[in-house]
# Entry
Amino acid sequence: MNSQPIQDTKDSDNIVIRHKIPDRIYHWIMATAVIVLLATAFLPIAGLKFPWVTVHWIAGVILCVIVIVHIVRALIWQDRASMNIGLSDIKHAQQAFKWVLRTSKQQPNRPGKYPLLQKLYHHGIAAIVLLLIATGGLMLAKIDTPFWQRNPYMLSAETWGYIYVLHDLAAMAVLALLMIHIYFAIRPEKLWITRSMILGWITRQEYHDNHDPEAWVIETDKSK
Amino acid sequence: MISVEFFRISKNAWGQETLLGVSWDLIWVFIGAAVLFILVHIIYKWLFAPKKSEV
Amino acid sequence: MLRDMMSTFELQQPSSVADALAILKKAGKDSWVMAGGNDSLSWFKDRVKQPKTVVDISGIGELKGIREGANGIEIGALTSLTEIVNNATIKAKFSLLSNATGKVASPQIRNTGTIGGNVSQDARCWYYRGGLTCYRAGGNTCFADTPTAMNREHTLFNASRCVAVSPSDIAPALVALDAKMVIQNRSGTKVVDAEKFFVGPAVDIINMTILKHGDILTAIRIPNTWANSTFYFEKVADREVWDFPLVNVAAAMKVSGGTIKEMRIAVGGVEAVPKRLQVVEDLAKGQKKDINLAKLAAKASMRGAKPLNFNHFKIPLMKNLITRTFRDS
# Structure
């Protein structure tokens, strides 16, 4: 750990950009879409009756578009390696296990930009959201929109049943994962990460305390 | 005793069954699992997690 | 399909609303409230609905009869349609209701049918009634809204996955008269505007009214607000008797010196709920009741209409009924 105490306040020389504006916009649009989708899906089941279908499918289309934008941006312009799970992550996980079980006194090494658990969460929810988009996209064939007329006979009733099973299970999994996500976002020791998703930056102190500067080399340009 | 059905299956007038989706009761299983995870984590962090000073 | 072979069920015949509510609670969700039986028995005989317990409320005396009060009339939910047609007070003050009720089905059905049952009856979609697992039956598909489906009786307005329509002749009349529905359950009594009593598939795709398990519609109150107004009711069906409406219209107007001061108008058979035409009401307010207004109102009433493959004929039909409402009332 860095032994040099660094001023823990925000000024332009003392901050590190963790999430750029496009990434934050993406995150919050996606969060809004997911919350709207969950609310319009589950509140009517819970007994709160309201016209949910149109809001649900429009939020679903927005989620689909923004996920595609994110995938393209991540593959072409972003640092893909920062989200890869590699040997160093496995090593960190081993160290963390030993430390937690108190079989080792050595504190685990600091991760790069994203710790293993964040990567696992991201990849897990990404797979589930992609499943929701795929199954939900098929379901759009069953409703009339300004763009096409419904065709419920596109697939057999049995196939539709399997699609609904996958969609329902994935939606419930997202609900559970969202609860866990919000829990971590509001934990006191994680608020600096939450702040970075709102304001974009972390302090240099937080950077040095929580990240390995060799694994996450920060950009010299401080512009957001 | 609580019994949870896993699927929603409809039966028409001729007795034919159609798979409709997953039982909505499972929502509570997922919510319960998330709440359990959160509680276990809170207790772990509060009572068992090694502090950085323990290094 | 097996017909006239009901599955077995436990029959309960309470003599009070309190007993009926207690039985419904004990029997759980797999129970069914039956009044006149005209809707219920066809479901049972077709074996599409197979409740474990049937609560026959037809013996509850407190739910029968027409009572006149200072603010209007209260009609018990089990009052027969024939009694409503023949009631002198209703004929004199609310002829819209007696006219609409007189157009329901046939004399035999009006003798056994109740006003509560008529407004609470389920959709008459072929596919739903035929026992297919459509959205309304809890499934994931509408069989009536496909390129080859038989949907000449179905919706013009506000379909949301399901395209079934409200089949009641009385419901539009109650909306036009601004009636209040009295609903009782174990928590107490609530009074709901007729307009809010009916729900469309966007909100609830399985039920056509707000009645939930454990609720009983006990009475319908008609306030004096529209008593002795100018009324108009017309129903068009494939047969003169014993048929459901293709389109029906019910209107109440306060006319003074040839000018419409205020009006309420609702149309049945074109949406899952009786469609109140507020655009027509706003248009007509303060206008001379003449053919020009009639034509304009007919045109305005079509706003948002979205016919299905085989029910385009409902557009000119409904327009003509709106025109006649103003011309012939």
